């Protein structure tokens, strides 16, 4: 910031005002993002600002006296600098006031600062054999929270701008890396697999549940979903790790493609929307004679879904207007079935992808998805008076209403026995409940419903990356594509890889192995090189 000393005095006043105001805004935004998502601002977040605005009314709960005092002191400090920045002559009393303010702010910073050393043996720069260390975070720009601690505010802002929009990937190198990986992971002779082709030629309704945390699913609040989990396969150790900004789009991409996104880069819905995805679930089912379509209430531009779903192979993305849902019922999941059922099912084989919405934050009595089921939830939980908990459970009941109506209609049309429902959650509910399991592991729900089956509880560790390989096995769909994930019905132990280059084995977090590191990079290189581009 030495540049301010060579700027003309009158210009310097406005320059310092702008810079300090932006830095204050940066601090406040990071406070809310870290409180809400345990993350901080990345320039690429701006692409998701349209969807992000829906979270604004949920951040009020994080406003406290510390934040207010910080804002007041910071604003007074900015105004003071603006007023006296023309002259270098300060009275002693003014200097003393500035020093006092700096001391107060510094003491507060030191008190709240995470004392974890940046130079210890596991995370330090010298631990070159450890992939999850600060040198690797900095070089590859992983883990924004750590990057800010390492770089400092000014360098973080500039360096993140570079990685977000300026740095170009080496397409040729990426393609060569894919070739090498495929050579080392050739698909050998197919072995006999458990449950292979169990659901062959049956219809598939593929459902991503918005914010449906496991504590929201129980016999009282969501009786239909609870019952569905007891017919088919229930994966009890499932996780939804986030790798890029926008965890809903993150999970949506992984489940549909069976590939990891490029860690901490721009969401594939924007960066790789023009790629070819012949290995996606929509394209594979389409190749096997299914009619494939997707359904969600939001407009096409949210997460760029209109374009991305076309690239993924869906014939059409149906928003609330296409389904004929009224504005009054816009946020009710049951309206998807009430109005869009005839588009979701067909007489010919179909694979339909539904994204729910009702459990999306905020959670207040003013929202229709809360009001619709609130009286029932209050009667079930008479001792609960927390507005957010009651509304979250009411919203979960609304998603349950969707499934209830769907099953009734499928049964009425004699389609229930020939239709399988695969449901999974995009991410935990960070707003209402936030414990270590939620923050660190992103534990969520994943189940496969078959009305004619008893419950098969699967305890294998699974994450979103395992959903597609598992489905392909159950439907008996063979491909030549090498998926980084494993079929959860034919794997004993399991693991979950996180974006900080650590993995969870069901017992504890461990440093990522070279094999798992290559697994992540393989997916990234496939995207960077558009490896499966048709006619390349």
Portion of residues within helices: 40-55%
Secondary structure tally: strands: 14
Radius of gyration: 25 Å
* Strand coverage percent: 5-15%
| Low-confidence sequence ranges | 109-123
Distance N to C terminus: 49 Å
Instruction: Return the domain count.
Output: 2
- The named CATH superfamily of the largest domain: Alkaline Phosphatase, subunit A
Which class do the helix and strand fractions yield? alpha/beta
What is the CATH topology descriptor of the largest domain?
Answer: Alkaline Phosphatase, subunit A
What is the averaged pLDDT score? 86
Shape: globular
Count of individual helical segments: 20
Biggest sheet strand line-up? 5-4-6-1-7-9-2-10
Largest sheet: 8 strands, mixed
CATH class of the largest domain: Alpha Beta
CATH-scheme architecture of the largest domain: 3-Layer(aba) Sandwich
Please give a structural write-up.
The chain is an alpha/beta fold and 536 residues long. The protein has two domains: 2-113, no CATH class; 195-529, Alkaline Phosphatase, subunit A (3-Layer(aba) Sandwich). It has helices at residues 9-37, 49-52, 65-84, 92-112, 134-140, 144-151, 153-166, 171-184, 223-228, 247-257, 268-271, 281-287, 305-312, 320-323, 334-344, 368-380, 387-412, 436-441, 467-475, 514-529; strands at residues 203-209, 232-235, 238-239, 291-295, 317-318, 350-355, 419-425, 443-444, 446-449, 455-458, 462-463, 496-497, 502-504, 509-511. The strands form three sheets. Strands 5-4-6-1-7-9-2-10 form an eight-stranded mixed beta sheet, with helices on both faces. A three-stranded mixed beta sheet has the order 8-3-11.
């Amino acid at each position: 910031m030495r540049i301010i000393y060579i700027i003309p005095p009158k210009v310097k006043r406005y320059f310092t005002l702008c810079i300090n105001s932006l830095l204050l805004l940066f601090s406040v935004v990071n406070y809310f993002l870290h409180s809400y998502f345990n993350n901080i601002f990345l320039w690429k977040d701006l692409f998701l600002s349209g969807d992000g605005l829906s979270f604004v009314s949920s951040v009020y709960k994080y406003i406290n006296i510390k934040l207010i005092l910080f804002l007041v002191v910071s604003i007074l400090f900015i105004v003071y600098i603006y007023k006296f920045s023309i002259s270098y002559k300060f009275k002693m009393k003014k200097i003393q006031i500035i020093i006092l303010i700096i001391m107060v702010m510094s003491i507060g910073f030191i008190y709240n600062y995470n004392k974890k050393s940046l130079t210890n043996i596991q995370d330090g720069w010298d631990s070159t054999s450890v992939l999850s260390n600060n040198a690797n975070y900095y070089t590859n720009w992983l883990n924004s929270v750590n990057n800010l601690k390492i770089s400092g505010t000014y360098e973080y802002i500039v360096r993140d701008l570079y990685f977000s929009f300026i740095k170009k990937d080496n397409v040729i190198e990426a393609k060569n890396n894919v070739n090498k990986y495929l050579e080392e992971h050739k698909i050998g002779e197919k072995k006999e697999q458990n449950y292979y082709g169990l659901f062959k030629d049956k219809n598939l309704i593929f459902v991503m549940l918005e914010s449906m945390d496991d504590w929201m699913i129980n016999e009282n609040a969501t009786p239909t979903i609870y019952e569905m989990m007891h017919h088919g396969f229930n994966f009890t150790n499932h996780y939804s790790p986030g790798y890029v900004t926008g965890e809903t789009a993150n999970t949506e991409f992984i489940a549909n493609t069976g590939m990891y996104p490029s860690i901490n880069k721009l969401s594939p819905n924007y960066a790789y929307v023009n790629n070819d995805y012949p290995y996606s679930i929509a394209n594979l089912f389409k190749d096997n004679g299914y009619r494939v379509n997707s359904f969600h209430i939001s407009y096409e531009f949210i997460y760029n879904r209109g374009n991305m779903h076309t690239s993924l192979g869906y014939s059409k993305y149906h928003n609330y207007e296409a389904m004929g849902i009224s504005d009054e019922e816009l946020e009710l999941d049951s309206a998807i079935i009430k109005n869009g059922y005839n588009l979701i099912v067909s007489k010919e084989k179909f694979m339909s992808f539904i994204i729910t919405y009702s459990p999306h934050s905020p959670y207040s009595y003013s929202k229709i998805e809360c009001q619709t089921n609130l009286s029932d939830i209050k009667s079930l939980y008479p001792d609960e008076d927390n507005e957010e908990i009651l509304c979250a459970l009411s919203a979960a009941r609304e998603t349950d209403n969707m499934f209830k109506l769907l099953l009734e209609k499928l049964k009425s049309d004699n389609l229930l026995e020939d239709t399988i429902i695969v449901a999974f959650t995009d991410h935990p509910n960070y707003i209402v409940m936030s414990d270590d399991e939620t923050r660190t592991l992103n534990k969520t729900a994943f189940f496969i419903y078959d009305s004619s089956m008893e419950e098969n509880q699967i305890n294998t560790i699974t994450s979103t990356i395992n959903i597609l390989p598992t489905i392909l096995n159950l439907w008996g769909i063979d491909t030549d594509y090498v998926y980084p994930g494993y079929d959860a019905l034919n794997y004993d132990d399991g693991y979950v890889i996180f974006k900080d280059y650590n993995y969870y084995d069901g017992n504890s977090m461990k440093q990522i192995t070279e094999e798992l590191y290559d697994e992540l990079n393989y997916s990234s290189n496939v995207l960077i090189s558009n490896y499966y581009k048709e006619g390349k």
